[in-house]
Design a protein that fits this description.
heterotrimer; A alpha/beta (about 950); B alpha+beta (about 160); C mainly alpha (about 70); A: about 950 residues; alpha/beta; Dimethylsulfoxide Reductase, domain 2; 4 domains; 7-stranded mixed sheet; 6-stranded mixed sheet; 36 strands; about 30% helix; B: about 160 residues; alpha+beta; 4 strands
């Protein structure tokens, strides 16, 4: 595809049913009421010259380029700030307008450097384009404007690793400042001074971009019409000349991007305005942190070895695949069919995940397939399926624009899901109310222009108690939406639930001490949620990663049903998915008990359709989940594992236990980009593909199936699905596809919720939200609109059961974990980019009182000890933490956060209880024993045989 | 006048902001109060103001830098504001400004090295009938020439 | 008691703890169905053997559920 230049209509689209018809240059157009004259003209294909206007931002009216004449109106109003009126007759091009525009342009150019040919924006500059459009031929004032000379003498602000700021090229249109406010919601930029001294400033006078509040989302760079704010990659390589539309491979928001290329080199990633998930916005990861794809650490040749202490030997694909298949087959011969299995990855495409689970079910002949969603959102699947009937969130992201009350529980959207957070913050600035339930004072609790109405700073592990207390208030204060419940929910279950939550022991007053939140605050929050019109719940891993994760998901579903907050825009129960394709990997049958589409393996009818299509008998027995796999490995019954793009040795809890299990296995095959922590225990390494090399689909948190398109050839020479198909064939099962699209065709054929999905349609329509089938031919933005998927909604009794992980005198503090904006998950990608400049190391956040009690100063190295192990990290004293709770992130392998986490897990799904670990913190100036041993493993288990000399 | 160690400034800022109920809309009044209290609005005060009002540092900086009246550094013992709007200009204000600045060794908009005097331009004091006009420590003086203005300055210094 | 069986008992007891809020019949069914739907046959057999051998430390609902699963098998 050539360079995709999206039209810029100048001002945002208005969303109203009411329309207005106007005449522009003699042509008639009907547009929604409130549309600007500029946009109406643009929709007619008659663009009006502009500089300060762009359709990502509200009209500003400062550049005076877009003037028009309107019949019966005096003067020449700015078309961006003038809304259309019925019957208006507009002229956009007259001798008078030409003269004014040219005069204004003369003033701009009199104080702008004329280095167009050597400017980084040459060919991609709106000032240049507009000067051309208005026919600028001469500048009567000369070109010696003081401002750009003075500012050109100052050094450029190069502090941000990804873009530079060159004030001498600035025309002070304020688009960057407005983008930071309106689109991103960070308010990191301003115009300092006034008149000729006006200048864009990041933060205050003493800040540069890096030191300011800037979060490097790139919205300002995208908004800048000149080379003032410009990607360094464009500066280095020149403007791109072709685009490939694709989907970001970081978090579950699933932003659409234009990969802008020269040849097979990515020059920049630009968020796509037509992308349903992000509507033209991005964050520092998706926008800038893609350099890992060509990082020197990438392994692109298959490798094998006999023992994990041997050096790796580079081999051909055929040899590696034969080696892996032989080992797997001989394990099965010796120990039985069920002695091997595999793990799919939520980082991979639906097609890649589908073939791995198919290989396991059809070629391995068992159901020992699990996915990394086990350790993040498996309770979401269980909880929402039990109550609503489907394992997915209820809304699209756009829905937040209609929410009046937003309840955020156990999620930190500004760090974990930044692009959605920007949409949420926009709604909050427009007046929606906010309740945050989180032990930590996350940014949403208070950051410029956003403040939570209630921060329920609960103790980790008391989520269910809190939900029951909120529900108690709803039920006992007459706040139940009786009509909704009577019509839409199972009566007997509701009656039982109502009686349960109404019990005095579930009152806020009774539970307040356990929860650690004042009862009146809980009551007010419950009233606000129940009576504030559209109330929407957004939640993350702070909900699921608990021993009562599934109970908590059901408790939230109960609350939403009881208050009628399901089945329309602006409401719902919305999981914020951690990884790009968590939803998809679950949909694709990655769980050991479910075939694609969440249908139990014991269902004879469903299994029969798969058996007929795949031509093999399939097991009707649920297989092993990840923790069960580790246990079975330790007892010797499970000996071979295929791991697709997941680093279980780093990301799964209780590292000692996990590594002991991995060490006891006979054959571990790792398919990944890098030699990750798990690869230290592997005998076969199959190089994977980055998202820039993949052809397929990702499904985001709103069930949106987005296309992922390759911008470059696979660095390893093979697509991941092809590698899996070859391995399946070597195992004796004939799996063959000519293209990824054939895999999607098979998914659609076998999965009723996907029956209307195919690549051609996705290419045509952009994206589709499942279910897409005969009942919902155009997909399903909002679920459960006229009835629940399971028929009637089912209230579940959610007794609060404290976790077995308890604090005591030896382990008096609770450790909980989370994420940070610049890094992603185990950091395999982001650590290999400049993003590490924002977060070079994981730190332990600790309340000042807890720190003082232990003689800990900010920056001191501390040892974190749990019943399972110890690691050491630098301490950061932080008022964000409540007393008694400490916090860390898990982005760096050396931190070993999972050395200390426990084996406790969710009762229904075995999702690990990452969020509650009892610990003690002491000062320590050395790495822990584990960290020392880890260094040793890195030295011994990562060696590669030297290349033979030529 | 308080000393302006960062801690003291932060405490002063917190007090002033609280007095205005931490309302973002009161930013300009808060800046005036701070300047009244400590004589200027230092950059070091901006983070505390931003935190109190739940604004970004950039926003506060934008407002502070927009108004010339907010000074970043303490003023001299005497502050002279000379009008250079149309009426006063036509009555010779520009050359008067030059001469006064030269006489006291100060740049327009700055403070003399000895900290005794600050000279600033203003744009109309509403005293056009008595052009050229000035304010010496907020006291209006009209129909000024170099000597008259200097006398007022000396008076204010003593 | 091996770590492995301890782990299975804990998992099963956690399941029973969720379902014990329901009337007994429903609670036994819920527990049994959950174990049937999500556990491998080897895990079920192992816990089943332990339950019929002595069942120390096993939640009463799990004992009943295992009995029911064994009958069905």
């Amino acid at each position: 595809m050539a360079l995709l230049e999206e039209p810029d209509f100048g001002t945002p689209k208005r969303e109203t049913e009411k329309t207005v018809t106007v005449q522009i240059n003699g042509q008639t157009i009907t547009v929604p009421e409130g549309t600007s004259v500029m946009r109406a003209a643009s929709e007619l294909g008659q663009d009006i010259p502009k500089l300060c206007a762009t359709d990502m931002l509200n009209a500003w009216g400062s550049c005076r380029m877009c003037l028009v004449e309107i019949e019966g109106v005096r003067g020449t109003p700015a078309s961006c700030t003038t809304p259309v009126r019925e019957g208006m007759n507009v002229r956009t091009q007259t001798p008078r307008l030409e003269k004014i525009r040219r005069g204004v342009m003369e003033l701009y150019i009199s104080d702008h450097p004329l280095d167009c040919l050597t400017c980084a924006a040459n060919g991609d500059c709106e000032l240049q384009d507009t000067a051309g459009e208005v026919g600028l031929r001469d500048v009567r004032y000369g070109f010696q404007g003081e401002k750009h000379f003075a500012e050109a003498a100052e050094p450029k602000d190069e502090s941000n690793p990804y873009f530079h700021f060159d004030s001498s090229k600035c025309i002070v249109c304020s688009r960057c400042v407005r983008a930071c406010e309106e689109v991103q919601g960070t308010f990191a930029l301003t115009i300092q001074g006034r008149g000729f001294d006006s200048k864009v400033s990041a933060g205050a006078a003493t800040d540069d971009f890096f030191g300011s509040e800037c979060v490097s989302c790139g919205a300002c760079v995208q908004a800048c019409p000149t080379a003032t704010l410009m990607e360094k990659s464009v500066y280095d390589h020149g403007v791109p000349n072709r685009s490939v539309l694709t989907t970001c491979a970081y978090c579950g928001v699933g932003c659409s991007f234009k990969a802008e290329m020269q040849g097979d080199q990515v020059v920049r990633m630009v968020p796509y305005k037509d992308g349903g998930a992000n509507e033209g916005h991005s964050c520092v990861k998706g926008r800038f942190a893609w350099g890992y794809a060509t990082h020197k650490d990438r392994i692109t040749t298959p490798m094998i070895r006999d023992k994990i202490t041997d050096p790796w030997r580079k081999v051909s694909w055929d040899e590696a695949i034969a080696f892996a298949a032989d080992r797997f087959k001989s394990i099965q011969q010796k120990y039985g069919k069920g002695s091997i299995g595999g793990i799919t990855s939520s980082r991979c495409t639906n097609e890649e995940v589908f073939v791995v689970q198919k290989m396991i079910r059809a070629a391995f002949g068992n159901n020992n397939v699990d996915t990394c969603a086990r350790v993040c959102h498996s309770p979401t699947g269980y909880g929402l399926k039990t109550t609503f009937g489907t394992s997915a969130g209820t809304q699209n992201f756009k829905s937040v624009e209609k929410a009046d009350v937003i309840l955020v529980i156990g999620a930190n959207p500004t760090d974990g899901h930044p692009v959605f957070a920007s949409r949420m913050k926009k709604r909050l600035r427009a007046g929606a109310k906010l309740i945050v339930a989180d032990p930590r004072k996350i940014d949403l609790v208070r950051s410029p222009h956003v403040a939570a109405n209630h921060h329920l700073q609960l103790r980790p592990g008391t989520n269910v108690a809190l939900m029951n207390a909120l529900a108690h208030v709803v039920v006992t204060e007459g706040l139940v939406d009786e009509e909704f419940v009577a019509e839409r929910c199972e009566e007997a279950d509701f009656t039982r639930w109502r009686a349960f939550v109404a019990e005095a022991r579930n009152a806020p007053e009774a539970l307040s001490e356990k929860i650690g939140v004042d009862p009146e605050t809980i009551r007010e929050a419950a009233r606000l949620y129940a009576t504030g019109k559209n109330a929407a719940i957004y939640y993350g891993l702070g909900v699921t990663e608990h021993s009562q994760g599934s109970t908590m998901v059901m408790a939230m579903a109960n609350l939403a049903m009881a208050t009628g907050n399901i089945g329309r825009e602006g409401v719902g129960v919305n999981p914020l998915r951690g990884q790009n394709n968590v939803q998809g990997s679950c949909d694709m049958g990655s769980f050991p008990h479910e075939l694609p589409g969440y249908r139990h393996v014991a269902d004879t009818l469903v299994r029969g359709t798969f058996e007929a299509d795949w031509g093999v008998p399939l097991s009707a027995e649920p297989g092993l989940r990840i923790p069960n796999m580790f246990a079975a490995a330790l007892d010797g019954s499970f000996r071979g594992l295929f791991v697709q793009g997941e680093d279980i040795a780093q990301s799964d809890p209780n590292t000692h236990h996990v590594t002991a299990a991995l060490e006891s296995m006979d054959c571990i095959v790792v398919q990944d980009l890098f030699l990750n922590e798990t690869a230290a225990f592997a005998q076969v390494f199959l190089p994977g593909t980055s998202f820039l090399e993949k052809d397929g689909t990702f499904t985001n948190a709103e069930r949106r199936i987005n296309r992922v398109r390759p911008v470059m050839k696979e660095q390893s020479g093979l697509s991941e699905w092809e590698v899996v198909a070859r391995l399946a064939r070597a195992m004796g099962y004939d799996m063959h596809y000519n293209a990824a699209s054939e895999i999607m065709d098979e998914i659609a054929r076998l999965t009723p919720t996907f029956s209307g999905v195919n690549f051609a349609r996705l290419d045509r329509e952009g994206s589709l939200q499942w279910p897409v089938n005969d009942k919902a031919p155009n997909g399903t933005p909002t679920m459960h609109v006229s009835g629940f998927v399971r028929g009637k909604g089912r209230f579940m009794i959610t007794e609060y059961v404290p976790t077995e992980e308890r604090t005591n005198r030896s382990f008096p503090l609770i450790l909980t974990t989370g994420r940070i904006l610049s890094q992603y998950n185990v950091g395999a990608q982001t650590r290999r980019t400049e993003n590490s400049r924002w977060h070079e190391t994981d730190v332990l956040e600790i309340h000042p009182f807890d720190a003082e009690e232990r003689g800990i100063a900010d920056g001191d190295r501390v040892s974190i000890q749990s019943r399972k192990g110890a690691v050491s990290l630098p301490a950061q004293i932080s008022e964000r933490m409540p007393q008694g709770v400490v916090y860390t992130t898990f982005h760096h392998p050396v931190s070993g956060a999972n050395v200390i986490t426990t084996e406790f897990s969710d009762w229904a799904t075995n999702c690990p209880e990452y969020k509650v670990t009892a610990v003690q913190i002491v000062r320590s100036n050395q790495p822990s024993d584990w960290q020392v041993a880890h260094e040793e493993i890195r030295r011994t288990n990562y060696r590669t045989e030297p290349e033979p000399a030529e | 006048m308080s000393t302006d160690s960062p801690l003291n400034i932060d405490a002063t800022v917190v007090d002033i902001c609280r007095h205005h109920a931490n309302a973002p809309a009161a930013l300009i009044e808060i800046l005036h109060d701070l300047q009244e209290e400590i004589g200027h609005v230092p950059q070091s005060a901006l983070p505390a103001i931003a935190t109190a009002l739940n604004l970004s540092r950039a926003e506060v900086h934008g407002v502070v830098s927009f108004y010339h009246d907010f000074r970043e550094k303490p003023a001299g013992a005497v502050t002279v504001k000379i009008c250079r709007a149309e009426a006063c200009q036509s009555m010779g204000a520009l050359s008067l400004i030059q001469r006064i600045c030269a006489r006291h060794g100060v740049e327009l908009g700055g403070t003399s090295a000895d900290g005794r005097i600050t000279v600033e331009a203003v744009y109309c004091l509403g005293n056009c009938a008595l052009s050229p006009a000035a304010l010496v420590n907020d006291k209006p003086v009209g129909r000024i020439d170099e000597e008259r203005l200097n006398a007022a300055i000396r008076g204010a210094m003593s | 008691m091996s770590d492995d069986i301890k782990e299975l008992i804990r998992m099963a007891n956690q399941i029973a703890t969720f379902f014990q809020s329901y009337p007994e019949e429903e609670a036994v069914t819920g527990t049994a169905e959950h174990i049937r739907d999500f556990w491998t046959s080897a895990m079920r057999a192992r816990l089943g053997r332990y339950a019929s051998d002595n069942g120390n430390g096993v939640h009463p609902l799990v004992m009943q559920a295992m009995g029911r699963l064994q009958q069905a098998a």
